[in-house]
# Entry
Amino acid sequence: MFNFSFDKRTIYIIIAIMVLSTIVKYVTDTGALFALLVSVPGVLLAITFHEFAHGLAAYQLGDNTAKNEGRLSLNPMDHLDPIGTLMLLVAGFGWGKPVHVNPTNYTRKITMEKGEAIVSLAGPLTNILLAFVLALVYGAMLKFTSIDFLYSTIGRIIQSMIEAAISINIGLGVFNLIPLPPLDGSKIIMPLLPYNAKQWFRNNEHIFYIIFVVIWITDIASLLISPAINAITTGIMTITGAIFG
# Structure
């Protein structure tokens, strides 16, 4: 996930405003509060697997940094960033504690740039694969669980949790594919750019941070990623439906 290094004071002010407005919504809408509570397991899964995947990919390429820092773990407490986790809960997108990597340790079979792209892609791709696995679990539950259980309180809560986890993982994966610093997508596209474009991109990185903040606090991010989220969700549910009838 991205390295959160932009002007933190500005970001925290924006976060505070968003959190306050969200708290008001939860206080006045019990349905929204229920949605928040059932999304917690999905948030923990999404952040944990995303950051673990970054560290594992780097380790497979020869870099032990994440392993030495204890980040090759599926313990959520090793990966959660308090502010990023809160944002994922209240705003639908956020971040975990960045996994540190050292590209100079990567295998020389590929360039450092390609290694960074692989490590960056590992997080979003894992989120989408996890969403597919959860969809299979959801399909199996609907297929093989009794109607009485599905319509019970516990059954409905479990269904809501799985649905939320699927949605959160797809959303987090797609959001991080936006090719803007500090998101994963900015490193994924680097090997695909011509030399001059790479240099311009690096020299003007501060501009892209400003663009990122703008799309982050407006509905532009949602407009950009909604078609991809809908397409992936439809594809996953179609495959799941075909498997379980």
About this structure: Residues 112-144 form the longest helix (33 residues). DSSP finds eleven helices and no strands in the chain. The mean pLDDT is 86.
